[in-house]
Amino acid sequence: MTNPVDRGDAVSHCRALLVGYHRDIDSGRATAGIGAFADDAEFEAHGRVFRGRAEILDFLSAREANTGRQTVHVLANEVVTVQDDEPGGERVELRTVVLLHVRQPDGAYALDRVLETVHHFSHIGGRWRITRRASAPLHPAA
After folding, report:
1. Largest alpha-carbon pair distance within the chain?
2. Nearest of 76, 69, 86 to residue 120 by alpha carbon
3. Which has the closest alpha carbon to 131: 14, 38, 18, 33?
4. What is the pLDDT of residues 61-76, one digit of tens each?
5. Spatial distance between the Cα atoms of 51 and 63, rounded to a whole number of angstroms
6. What does the DSSP 8-state code read for residue 23?
7. Predicted confidence band at 28 (pLDDT cuts at 50, 70, 90)?
């Protein structure tokens, strides 16, 4: 069982991982975000599920290679659940709405889609890691 100080620390670490890998994508360094994921993580994107760091890294590498697509991810409506009574230790679930903006030819960013995402985190080897990321569109591009 964790005390409230530990719980807050867990949440802040998980939130930092979430923000960090989105920042890596938005800055053109998508592959730098691989460190946020557990070895056996599942990552759902574009209607596919990528399993394990190798598949996730392939996805991030392809994203990074697409230099013409510049994005800004805005995270909103965060809901956090901490579960500390499960076998295997503490887990954090972080639900967010992601407003994905894509750079247009004129240089302005336009809202491309709105996604509801769920990230599951576990404390593995002394560090927090994303073990699962799922998403569903809330609002397709107009």
Report:
1. 53
2. 86
3. 38
4. 999 999 999 999 999 9
5. 16
6. H
7. very high
